[in-house]
Structures are given as C-alpha cells and as structure tokens.
Batch of 2 targets.
Target 1
Amino acid sequence: MCSIIGIVTNNHAQVAPKLVKSLSRMEYRGYDSVGLATITNTGISVKKGVGKVSQVNGYLNLASMEGFVGIGHTRWATHGGVTDHNAHPHSCCTNDIAVVHNGIIENYQSLKQELTKTGHTFRSETDTEVIAHLLEQFYHNTGSIKKAMMETVSRIQGSFAFVAMFMDNTLACARLDEPLVIGIADGACYASSDVLGFLEYTDQAIFLDNRDIAIIDSTNGIDIFNFEGEKVVRNPTKVAWELADANKGKFAHYTIKEIFEQRETIRSSVTAQDAFSLKRFCDLLLDARKVIITGSGTSYHTSLIASMVGSRYLKKHFEPVMASEFRYNIDSIDSDTTLVAISQSGETADVLNAVKLAKNAGAKILSIVNVPSSSLARIADVSLCTNCGPEIGVAATKSFTGQLALVYATIDRASGGKIGFDAAAASDAVARVLQNSLKVEALVKDKMARVNDIYLLGRSLHFPIALEGALKMKELAYIHAEGMPAGELKHGPLALMDKNVYVFVLNPSDKTYTDTLGSVHEVKARGAKIIGISDVSSDLYDAMIKIPKMDSDILYPLLEVIPLQIFSYHLALQNNVDPDFPRNLAKSVTVR
Ligand code: AGP
C-alpha cells in the first residue's frame, strides 16, 4: 500500500534526491500521490502532490529540496480523496513535526474531535493527520520524543507504520501490523517500508517487530524500545536480495522480466531450503488432523492447487480457504489443525488476520512467503521462502510458480517421494514454454484487437490456473475475464458464448483431457474463438500454444500459466496499460 521512507545523514549529504529514488523503488506498493518533507534552516519544508513519483518530482522538483534529514511517502488513498492536501507528509499546527504513515488509524474520528476541541486545526481528511497533532501535544507537554511517541501509540488504534520528523534532526518511527525496516549505512540511517527503499545504499537492516519504536538521530544513533518504553535489542541482518534483482535489466517492464525469470526461480524456490525448517514443515503437515491452506488473490490460487495435491499424496483432507473469508469459517479450527498461509509479500492484512485467528484457536502455523523478513514469516511456527527475489510488478508471476514448486517439493518430501518432483526438469520445461513468447505477442496483435470478454476453462488442477489467468487479464489488461471449471459450462455460462467471445482452454493430455475436449465442442458450436493450451493439437482450436508433455499432471499448472501471463502482458500493452502499475491496485495489500 503506501510507502514510507525517512533518512537521517550525519555527513551533510542532501537527502531529497535519495528520498525520491527510494520512493520510486517502492512505488509499486501504492501510487496515487507523493510527498517529501525536509528540515531546512527556516523550518520543515513540505512539498506534495497528486501523481506518480516521476510526475510529482517533475512539477514540484522534489529532488531539489534542501536538507540532511527528511521523510517521504507514496500514497494509496484509503481515508480522504486523492488530493494534494491529503498527500503525506502531514504536519502539526506548529509545523515543527511532520509525519508519513502507512496503515489505518481506526479511531481517528474521535481523536480528531478531541484534538479539534483542544485547539488543533486539521488541514486534510486523512486518518494520518491525528498522529502529527498527538505528537505535537505530547512533545510540547513533555519535551521528550520518547514520551511523545509512547503516548501517541497508546492513543491510536488500528494498524500503522509511521515515521515522524522533529526539528532537532531526529526521526522517530513505530510499527504495529505494518512493515518497517531500518537500513544502516555509512553516514546515514533509513527507516523504510521495504528494504528496496535503501538497498542501493546498504544491505544491513534491522527489521522492527510489532510494538517497536525507534528513535534515530545523527549523533546518538538508533534507540529501540517497545510501546511500554522498555529497551529492546534488534540486531542488524544482511539483506539477501541484490540490487540488480530490483532492476528491469534489458526488459521494458518488470512484469515481463519477472515472467522470464521463471526459468530460474522455479529451481531456486526449491533448492535453497534449510533442511531443518523443511523437515519441521513436513512434520507439521503430517501430524495435523486437518490442514487448511489460505492466501489471497494469486496466492489463494496456489492454495487451491496445494489442497488438491496435498489431499492426493498425503491422503488427508486439505481445505483451501480464501484469506478474506477466513474469519467467517473458523469454528472447526483447534490444536490439531495446521494452517498453511501462502503470500508473496508476507504482509497481506487478510492473510495475517487469518493467521492470528487460527493461532488463537490453537492451530500451528506454516507459511510460504517470498519476503523472508515479512510479518508472516516471523509469526509462523515454520516459514519457507520461495527465494524468487524481489517481485516488483503488481501482478504476481514468478512468485506464483515459485509457490507451486515449493508446495510440490514439500508434499513430495512429506509423502516419502511419491511425486518425484524434479524442480530442474520443471524449470527446463518452463523455459521451453517461454519460447512461445513471440507467438503469443503475434496472436494478440493479429487476432485479439478488440477483445472484451475472455473465458478460461479447465478441470481439476487446471481450474485454479483458469482463475489465475483470468485474474492476470483483469488486473493487467483491464479485460473482463472469467475462469471456470469446464464442467460447469452447461449449468449456466454457456449462455454467454457467442462469436465475440474468446475462450482459453487448459487441456493437457491427463485424466481431464477427454471431458474438457467435450466442453470445447460445446463452446465451438456457439461460435466462440478458442485458444488451446495443451500438449495435443486439435482442429477445434483457432490457435494453440503447445506445452511439453509431462510425466505427471501436477506439472501442467506450472506450464499453462506461462502463456496466460504473456497473453495478459501483451493485452495490457495493446490496451495502453502500464503492466507494472495497473490502476487502483497495490502490490502489498496491508488493509482489510
Ligand atoms: C496478483 O497478481 C495480485 N496482484 C494479488 O491478487 C495478490 O496475489 C494478492 O494481493 C496477495 O498478495 P500476497 O501474495 O503478497 O499475499
């Protein structure tokens, strides 16, 4: 969602250019408006406006702001419209404290009323502004930043990570259920939503825990304590990601770069596992009476496949539950339950909430994440990392196949090798499917100029891929797309089929093949244009993307999703959509 960044230097380097760069790197998190505040000789200077980082920097010249200490923000609006006033940073009445915030302050209305009565004037409609005024009140009463921070966090309810800047060149930050990480470099300290905010300058990071407050100043360094004021020790760790992983390289967009990276990431998601964690993960799957798998969006699609594969090979019931629906379905969770939570970011609020509810009911928590330092990784009993490197494109691509590969590897191991999953062979097959990229591009150009409705059909393991393909087409290309079990056509959706409709059919030669071909006949008879994704050709297909024949049906989802990702990417370009930053969406959805 929003990104926050704060920088304190002790070498008199100007921070504004770095703040702008950091925000650009984290822009994928949310991006309707942007702002900076720096400390100057005459007070706190604030510049903010609506647009992307490059646009706002262009018209406000953010990078030229003076100052050695500063904060910055990219906003994805929740409370208050997308306006210059609502953009962060927000300042207190006396303009000597400025704040950037990610999260939601649930009790902001009552706090705003209370603060207004005591003489505070609000300049925005945001929930965030109450933090600036609370800090002002407590700081001016006590003269202590530490006390002001403790009092402020004791009054606000909801989820937050915020950085406050004080006129004495100090930054103070706090977190509860939103990510916040401190980067430590020679001559500067960073407080950021994401390591990408400072990876260019340092790989040394302190990941703050929930209920941590940190005060950073150029002379005393970093002081960390909890909301009760007790000192806590958080040691720096080395960030595993390389900066090069966060660049586009030779590709036009992150999305297509990340699609192509799947040649390697399927392998790396499996091979880099720590043996102890892998064993514990498998034991907790095997020991459970009931396994529930949860996730959101693409990660939920992984949960669907994981549940089918887990039930098949471990001979116990695996239940997939959408994370946003989890809280309504918790009655049967107990200490014999294992919850597997799957998330690229490890920060999705719905997933974290599901985990909390399951934990309270006594369940064991396993997680599969791509961000090893994420909140989800830290609250799980055992966490495995998909090791895909940073995924910047808003649409999940390499993290999805990384999740699938890791699910297969763990179930394979837990079942005593019944799957015989070979990640290297799967990677090689994916590399072969990627060779269809130019063919997909040509099909989009030649045959899909005016497509409004796309349906995707599949049965069994291929149904979640139909859902995933539809999600990619919606979010990347803004095209109405629906994934459905092919067998359900005759129960209603067949009424939608006509010559204007495109139907993608996921139909490799496994046990679903003949039945799905029957469904293809049904849509063909209604005039729909059919694009087959299969290892077997058929005259019924108007176009076809051939995938290799695989020994096991569980490998097909890894292959089928690749052309669907590439179709979505090229449809996005055709519709003039920036595939990396689709409208209204954020990579990491940290609100419920
Ligand atoms: C996928 O393309 C989406 N952008 C979105 O559905 C995403 O998968 C979902 O928000 C879950 O994110 P997570 O994996 O980081 O938890």
Target 2
Amino acid sequence: MYFIANWKMYGDLKSLNSLNKVIKFSKQHKKKRFKIIYCPPYTLLDSFSKKIKKTKIELGAQNCHFEMSNGPFTGSISPSMLKKIGSNYVIVGHSENRSSGESDNVINKKIRSSIATNLKVIFCIGETLIQKKRKLTNKTLKKQILKGLSKIKNSNKILVAYEPVWSIGTGIIPKIKDLDKNVTFIKNVLKINLKIKNPKVLYGGSVNPKNVEDLASIKSIDGFLVGGASQKAKNFIDIVKKTII
Ligand code: PEP
C-alpha cells in the first residue's frame, strides 16, 4: 500500500519536526508492506531529503516542467533538478493544476520527461461534479488516461491516483460501491488499452482517519493520496495504521 502526503502550498522548516513521529512509526513497522512518500513544496525538498536519509520514507515533488533538464522557463523546476535533489517521485496532472489550464498534452510531456529522468510518476485523474452528474465519469477518466499516457512505455513507473475533483478538500468521499466500480474501470483501461500487467491505482480526495477504514475495504485500491490530513503527523499515521495494522 502506498501512502502519499501531498502538502500542497503549506509548510515551512518548522513543519519538518512533524516528520520525526512518522519516521519513528515507519521504523517500528518496517516489516509491514507499505510505502510512505512525502510531497512537500519545492522549498522544502532539500531539507526533507536530508531528513529522510536512512529511512524507508521516500520523497516526491508536486509538479515539474516538461523540459527534462534546463531551459528558459522562469519559475519552473525540471525533472532532472528534482532527481538531483533526492526526489524519486513527482505528482503530475493534479486537478488543481488542470483547473488552471494544464492540458492532457502538457501532462503527457511531463510524464514522458519524468520517466526518462527515472522519476516515478503519480498521475492524477478524476471527473468534475458536472461530469459526474452528466454520467461522463468513465468517458472522462478514459480520455485522461489515454491522452496522458500516450506513447509511454515504462508504465511500471506510473501510479495512477484517482481523485474525483468534487472530493478534493470537500470532506465528501464517493460511495464505496461507486469508488470500487471506478477503480476497477480504471484498472481495466490500463490493462486492456495500455497493456499494463499489474496497474497500481490509488484513491485521493478527503481521506482522513475516520473514513479510511471504509475506503481501505476496497480491495482493488493500492493506496491513498492524502492532502489536508497529511499535514498533521498524527492524522497521517492514523491513516496508515488503520489501513495496514
Ligand atoms: C489532494 O490534494 O490530492 C487531496 C486528495 O487533497 P485532500 O485530501 O485534502 O482532499
């Protein structure tokens, strides 16, 4: 099971202290099969990287540019810069970036450069509330997958995060039956259309210590992408505990 902490645009050097508890927890349960990946803002990547050395916790970034290494792109960070600073993962296609204009085509370019740089990609997909109401969920998810992952060979480097847009930061989660159906649909598209043998699909959207047991009852889910609840160590540890212990 994967547990990915997306800190979004939150956190400063002081917030790194909260990592001590998570590191301790991860050491205590090192025999259990789970992976914790922290995705702090760019400004904290270096400090995180130093802090998690010699632990099983891994580091990810929240976005990247599509240019692999360098270029005249003011304010951007490339996949190779992320790799050099100790990141092994990068989130691509988060709905908070799609909603400010990131296209499937740009997402595809980012994924290709990231994989070429040897980063693993947490590829976010999800339908909006309007798409859900119009019964366009499957069509939307399939289009995002096929366009986002077009011409990508190393698909074992991809974790798909299914994040219904209407569930992010709202406290609302899908009905368990619907979520199970959607995760199965996504896995089938990955298997049948893209010939990925053992696709990994995580769920993200208002995961918290109270709802995680219900969510974890869905056997096809391979982990969780956690936003708000990952910023407090206790909540994040509780989410992991309730899933794996
Ligand atoms: C996210 O940002 O990917 C996310 C799932 O946020 P939250 O858990 O706060 O809904």
